[in-house]
Amino acid sequence: MLEKPNLQEIVNKLLENRTQKELHKMTGVPQSTISCLKNGKDKRQITYDNAFALINAFEKDKLKSDKSKTPSDN
């Protein structure tokens, strides 16, 4: 069984290297929704598309981070 993603943790991780406005431009998720998630406010209003966009951005960041940790073959 898949675990329910913790969108607050995902948003906070995504905001470590960008602003809420930048995350909005990157994902299309309204800045107000990003702010609510960041602050642990009611998450029942988030749409499937917005949740998917945030999870997708998180996975892309994770892949970039994993690639940067790989030793180079020089």
Automatic annotation (TrEMBL):
InterPro entries: Cro/C1-type_HTH, Lambda_DNA-bd_dom_sf
A GO term, aspect molecular function: DNA binding
Protein name per the record: Transcriptional regulator
Domain HTH cro/C1-type: residue ranges: 16-60
CDD domains to which the protein is assigned, alphabetical: HTH_XRE
Pfam families recorded: HTH_3 (PF01381)
